[in-house]
Amino acid sequence: MPIEKLTSSASSVAVHADLDSVLVSEFDIKKRIKKLGAEITALYGQEEITIVAVINGAILFTADLIRHIENPIRLDCIRISSYRNDTKSVGKPQVLGHLSLDLANRHVLLIDDILDTGKTLSMLVSMIQKMHPATVRTCVLLDKRGRREVEFEADLVGFQIPDKFVVGYGLDFAERYRNLPCIGVLKPHLQNPPEWA
User: Fold this and answer.
1) What are the pLDDT digits (tens) for 33-66?
2) In this structure, what CATH number is given to the domain that contains residue 177?
3) Domain for residue 3, yes or no?
4) Which end of the chain is more exposed for a tag (fewer CB within 10 A), N or C?
5) In what helix (H) or strand (E) does residue 121 lie, and over which residues does it extend?
6) Residue 95 lies inside a defined structural domain of this protein
7) Active site residue 64
8) CB neighbours of residue 92 within 10 Å
9) Residue 2 forms part of a structural domain
């Protein structure tokens, strides 16, 4: 599957005072998601897909992506804690919620916002495989290969990005910045555990 290359124009303008630069523009996100939807539709043919979204991070990506998938879709969500209030994944990911749909003999597409260490998606795929699905595939908006600690590659990737701490379009720092329409690099002096109430 093709992966979108980042262009230099994306980093030329910051749309929020807390961003050092914009890594992926709102326009490029929309364009790539439309292509991903077409790729997923072609990949599954007429088959129904059970989508499992990792929230909160993948909530915007999933909502926009499924509008471009033509297949019948079932949707479930699971909550994972790995970053907390830090800029790096902290220890072993913890599952904070449980799936409600039966995944046995279903085509499962696991969607997450970012693949960096690989620990979260590797753990979730192993967990889902124990539920005896027909197939399990993964789709991520961002792939940060420079941070990989576990050997894992996603089946579908929106953008490959450098090892920078990014926020926006669902990605957060201490639950802030998820609502930004673009994906940007958080200014270094703001990448410390916050003292926000």
Assistant:
1) 999 999 999 999 999 999 999 999 999 999 999 9
2) 3.40.50.2020
3) no
4) C
5) helix 119-129
6) yes
7) no
8) 10
9) no
